[in-house]
Design a protein that fits this description.
- One of its GO terms (molecular function) is GTP binding.
- Pfam families: MMR_HSR1_Xtn, TGS.
- This is OBG-type G domain-containing protein.
- Keywords: GTP-binding, Nucleotide-binding.
- It comes from Angiostrongylus cantonensis.
- This protein has seven helices and 13 strands.
- The protein is α/β, with parallel strands linked by helices and about 220 residues long.
- The protein folds into three domains: about 70 residues, P-loop containing nucleotide triphosphate hydrolases (Rossmann fold, 3-Layer(aba) Sandwich); about 60 residues; about 80 residues, Ubiquitin-like (UB roll) (Roll), CATH 3.10.20.
- Strands 10-9-13-11-12 form a five-stranded mixed beta sheet. The chain has a three-stranded parallel beta sheet with strand order 1-7-8, with helices on one face.
- Helix 2 packs parallel to helix 3.
- The radius of gyration is 24 Å and the shape is flat.
- The relative contact order is 0.11.
């Protein structure tokens, strides 16, 4: 989200409020609340930690608005009514967001120090191309991506064009699928250099989990 650093931060809050109304949750995780409808038995509330807002009556009141009279609810943290409603609705979207505050060339160093304290914010100057490296690093982090370099047999690794994987789908098998589906069928094993290897190189199978900037040589049958 790109914002003008010369405008009040209230604009940021207004945009967040508008997105909340459409079910978009920025920089939040889905509520850790168990919710299971059932045919009978009424409302069963299991609070694993003390609750400051939700008790059985409050939960029943919220569920009744959705005509739900039989359900098991498990609260694994100190949850709010809004958290429970989000779980019941089941259509919320949780996405990471970076607030890019532009035009820092027009503010003082003291003001810049204050901006740096705002969570999820990266101050830049598009005109002067200031702080672009910090923005790119933050984008990479928020997108949760890793870079894997391939090494053809008998050649040096290709550091110019890494294979980009999601950090949650980062096995050798995922890498094979990203390069070409046929590699999954022809795969024999792989040699890995880098942080994920116990020694360099390490011979691994498809299930091996790769780390950022590992070097991989895939061997076919």
């Amino acid at each position: 989200m790109v914002l003008d650093v010369m405008k009040p931060l209230k604009h940021k809050q207004l945009l967040e409020y508008e997105l909340e109304g459409f079910g978009i949750r920025l920089n939040k995780q889905p509520p850790n609340i168990g919710f299971k409808k059932k045919e009978k038995g009424g409302i069963n509330l299991n609070a694993l930690v003390p609750q400051s807002e939700l008790d059985l009556e409050a939960v029943k009141s919220i569920l009744s608005e959705y005509k739900i009279h039989n359900a098991d609810i498990t609260l694994r943290y100190d949850a709010t009514s809004e958290d429970l409603i989000d779980v019941i609705e089941g259509n919320r979207v949780y996405i990471p967001c970076i607030y890019v505050l532009n035009k820092i060339d027009q503010i003082s160093i003291e003001e810049l120090d204050i901006i740096y304290r705002i969570p999820h914010c990266v101050p830049i100057s598009a005109h002067h191309k200031w702080n672009f490296d910090d923005l790119l690093e933050k984008m990479w982090q928020y997108l949760n991506l890793i870079r894997i370099y391939t090494k053809p047999k008998g050649q040096l690794p290709d550091y110019s064009a890494p294979i980009v994987l999601n950090a949650e789908r980062n096995t050798v098998d995922d890498l094979c699928l990203k390069i070409h589906k046929s590699l999954q069928k022809d795969f024999k094993n792989a040699l890995v250099w880098g942080a994920s290897a116990k020694h360099n190189p390490q011979r691994v199978g498809k299930e091996h989990v790769l780390f950022d900037e590992d070097v991989v040589q895939i061997l076919k049958r």
